[in-house]
Amino acid sequence: MDYIEEIKQLRQQIEYHSNRYYNMDEPEITDYEYDMLMQRLKALEKQHPELVESTSPTQKVGGVAKREAGVLVRHNVPMLSLQDVFSKEEVMSFVEEMQQKLDNPEFVVEYKIDGLSMSLRYDNGQLVMAETRGDGINFGEDVTSNAKEIKDVVSKLKDAPEYLEIRGEVYMTNEAFDKTNETQELLGKKIFANPRNCAAGTLRQLDSKVVRDRGLSLFIFNLQQARGREFKTHTQAYEYMKSQGISVIEDYRVCHTKEEVWDAICAIGENRGNLAYDIDGAVVKINDFAQREQLGTTSKVPKWAVAYKYPPEEKETKLLDIELSVGRTGRITPTAIFEPIRLCGTWVSRATLHNQDFINQLDVGIGDTIVVYKSGEIIPKVKEVKHEKRPQGVTTFEIPKVCPVCGAPAVREENTADIKCTSTTCPAQLERHIINFVGRDAMDIKGFGAVYIQDLVRLGYLKDIADIFVLSRYRDELVEKGIIGKEKNTDKLLGVIEEAKKRDADHLLTGLGITGIGKAAAKSLLLHFGSIDGVAQASIEDLTQVEDIGEVSAKAIYEFFRNPGCIELLERLKSYGVNMTKEKVVTGVGIFTGKTFVITGTLPSMGRKEAAELIESYGGKVTGSVSKKTDYLLAGDNAGSKLEKANSLGIAVLSEEKLHNMIKEAENAN
How far is CA 633 from the centre of its chain? Predict the structure, then answer.
């Protein structure tokens, strides 16, 4: 490949991965791999300066400003990135260059926090604006309301200048990140790849409550601008900020020689494994603000600072075992257990192997010699297998087709790399199953929140979903312990649980958590078979006769109702008085039988749920999205894109009044 083509391809690769990192918060490669692509492009552009373009990634800062969390705002001071260096020689060269250009410069060496950059503006001590970096030069996003939910953001300064603008890094501690991912998994939502992605995605949320619940943190690392008070040095500004309760970068060091600078970088590297948060390097910056002004900036980076990126630290070790764990969604995760090694200052003996595809890709077997590394992150990763050192008889590890917790069949989900336990009674998935079971689309037990469920499971009151319906037996204990609250709250929830026993059986079938069986499929099954027993006794062939039920779903249903644990669970639900039949509610001649509806917008007198029940009572089916199979769109105010799509497909659009008229005409005709 000639250098022109290589430059073109590198620019495309970097633009793609930059977008994944800055704008989507979903990187596909490590920071180190990204840095190496950028270094190669810089080297080629240096050799061929005539090919440098203003649109090249080497000439731009960060990502683009987006309108997710708020309006765009123009930067008062550009939020530039830093020049990266990767070797001791480059650090020494930077220090020597500064010493040649400046009179006795002081250097500050500090952590480079791995998060999302944000500036805060204060007018007369009052926080008036928080903005993200955005494109770094012109615009960022106004995230003021979200920033105020971060515990480290000070809203009012005690001893304030006329104007103050400071810049910091929004990040997540590892504890907050683990807690957030645990909640995400429990609720069946997306799991974040690392704390930086989670922090970035959270800060851009439209709902400030999400920011508060996830526990973001902030370190300030620079004074951007001040009016009404003079600061001569970076450290002087830090001391002032600390006096105002502002969190600044911890454990920064002031250095005077290149040896001191390098020792400080090494000390940070040794300690990074002991921090409560991730760092992705060390920053070396000039302390004196006048000297910074003298040096100036390029279009992309300040000339008075560099960011040292630690090389990936990796070591060989022996794989002793592969441990299998089951998450709350049933996903089976393999973890490598290896002989302890010291990386980035800490001893490690475990690393995730992600899934079977990852194991196959590396060809990992128990007894192999593996290479484990850390690169700017606390979490160790398996890089490769030294197959030339493989002992005789070692083969590629296969995740068993049974759940390691309950012994039920484990299957690979279609179009994913996940292998999941199929049992809805698996203890590892209990909290998740109960949350789904009491949810609006299933048994709809209002007020039965996740916190109550977690406490009831932890204290042994809930061992499966059937136990929900005998909680009343422990009413006095629950009140005494205050698990659900005092008498009023406890009795209210127990009353809602009692009422839920009367729900149509399609609610129960939805809540059982059978793979592929949601609300619509459950209704179709109960309309066809009439009862849970009818569904349970059906053959795979019988099941596939039902609309929306394909072979995969039919097999999942068939196997569920032949699992001894599931059979026992259903018998208990019956004995506790939970309804197992579908009320026959189709009236008249079923004027909407065979017709598919979609509901959108705000209806004049009915909620969507009420409208759906009305349509279903006349034999119709309600789905969530418009397609060629849709017969009618029931549209209210603010119908939006579904109305546009229905019109483009020539689908009949009904108002609420028209729907009622159709029903009245059909009833009069009979």
Answer: 34
**DSSP letter (8 states) at residue 190:** P
Strand 305-308 versus strand 83-85 pairing type: parallel
The angle formed by the CA atoms of residues 251, 253 and 258, to the nearest 5 degrees, is: 145
Q: How many other CB atoms are found less than 10 A from the CB of residue 477?
A: 13
- Cross-strand bridge partners of residue 301: none
Whether 429 contacts 328, CB under 8 Å: yes
Choosing from 8, 101, 112, 189, which is the catalytic residue?
112
Cα separation, 342 vs 362, in Å, equals 22
The question of whether 112 is a catalytic residue gets the answer yes
DSSP state of 257: S
Structure tokens at 484: 């659900």
pLDDT tens sequence across 200-240: 888 888 778 888 889 999 999 999 999 999 999 999 999 99
Residue 4: is it exposed, middle or buried by C-beta count within 10 angstroms (0-12/13-18/19+)? exposed
Report strand pairing: 332-343 vs 346-352: antiparallel
Q: What is the pLDDT of residues 540-586, one digit of tens each?
A: 999 988 877 888 889 989 989 998 888 999 999 999 999 999 865 54
Phi (first) and psi of residue 132, to 5 degrees: -85, 170
Q: What is the pTM of this model?
A: 0.59
Distance separating alpha carbons of residues 43 and 41, to the nearest angstrom: 5
**Burial class for 476, CB neighbours closer than 10 Å (0-12, 13-18, 19+):** exposed
Burial-class residue 147 by CB neighbours within 10 Å (0-12, 13-18, 19+): buried
Q: How far apart are CA 80 and CA 30, in angstroms?
A: 22
